[in-house]
Amino acid sequence: MQRQLFILLFVTFLPSCKPTTVDTPIGGNGTVKPSTETIVIIGSSTAAGWGASDYKYSWAGRLTQQLSNSRVVNLAKGGYTSYQLLPTKSSHPNNRPDADTLRNINAALKEKPTTLIISNSSNDAVAGYNVDEIIDNFNMIRSRALAAGVGTVIITTPIPRKFNAEVTTKLLLQRDLVMKSYGSFAVNIYDPLATSENLVKPELLSEDGIHPNDKGHEVIFKIISSFLL
Fold first, then answer.
1. Predicted local distance difference test score (pLDDT) of residue 229
2. Which one of 37, 187, 199, 211 is CB 3.0 to 4.6 Å from 156, fit for a cystine?
């Protein structure tokens, strides 16, 4: 009788014994890494892959291949400045371009990103915009992303460009302010590409004389991926 009672109690207890699932946090803040992350890139031509012999050799293309468990959405477009990336219907001077609703921060947020990468190369400086307005635009885009719940917003520096002394001065100032303003969420892709004359190193420059080649994109990829992997 006692043996039968023990068996009955054991069978009754067994269904309630379920394995415990323990999430492994990343870093020391106790946050749990989701099984699939969505990374959205907004920006200009280098982020869009210009200069690489094939998109898969661009820094964004390499990132897509490396992060096989993540979804990478690239909305960058050649020729774009920070103004095209602003929130839809943002106020701006009349001589500045409107936001592109297909490629701006609003479009990026529709993809539900866990990480946003903002990467504008040099078009703002070439267009004659002052660096303060560039940083103001970055701040507006970043604030909108954080308010929408994006966990990580990464902003890259510009890259060197052969144009004129005024543009070079602006690009250097933009580099410095991006690094100062965004701290650990700023990515310096200027210095690893630059010569002492603030031009892209010849071995990293594509035939168009503006954008990085495959090797240059690989340099950028390694820097950005180190922030994500």
1. 74
2. 187
Which amino acid is present at 151?
A: G
How much is the average pLDDT of 104-112? 98
**Element spanning 119, H or E:** strand 115-119
All domains of the chain, ordered by start, with CATH?
24-228 (3.40.50.1110)
Tally Cβ neighbours within 10 Å of residue 5.
9
Whether 155 contacts 118, CB under 8 Å: yes
45 touches 121 (CB < 8 A): yes
- Residue that has been written with the tokens 């052969």 in this structure: 162
Question: What order of strands is seen across the sheet that includes strand 152-156?
Answer: 71-74, 38-43, 115-119, 152-156, 186-187
Distances 108 to 33, 105, 137, 164, 188 between C-alpha atoms, Å: 21, 5, 16, 33, 22
